[in-house]
Design a protein that fits this description.
GO terms for molecular function: DNA binding. It comes from Thalassovita taeanensis. The protein contains 7 helices and no strands. By secondary structure, it is mainly alpha-helical. The chain folds into 2 domains: 92 residues, DNA polymerase, domain 1 (Orthogonal Bundle), CATH 1.10.150.130; 36 residues, no CATH class. α2 packs across α4. The N and C termini lie far apart (63 Å).
Length: 145
Amino acid sequence: MKEEKATLLRQRMIEDIYIRGLCEKTQKALIRNVKHFASFLGRPPDTATPEDLRAYQLKMTQGGVSTSTFNVRIISLRFFFGITYGRDEMKRFMQFHRKPRKLPIVLSVEEVADLMAAVPGPGLKYRAALGISYGAGLRASEVLT
């Protein structure tokens, strides 16, 4: 009977995915991630409790799952519980990870002077272009256009 229930639940989720017109890659990811959660539980995902969700998130965090993988799995579970199974209250127990922001590399005054001195060609044209680009913080693609 559990197999039949799981099959009906999976079929309903597939139908919900089709109703929303999600692309094939997204469809597969949603189903794969809910299946991953069910294998963690060892039972159908509709029997999950808030404590199960907490344990799953803790396992992913301790297992070193990347921020993007973690968030995609949470999105899949939010879809399952919110849309397919109609248990919106379970969304409260799911947290997203934030990707740590990297600080940009800032050149020292000496490094900027060396860079400006290395500009080829006679005259100030290229040196001025590089100086303005660097001073304004432009990206290489912005300078080229």
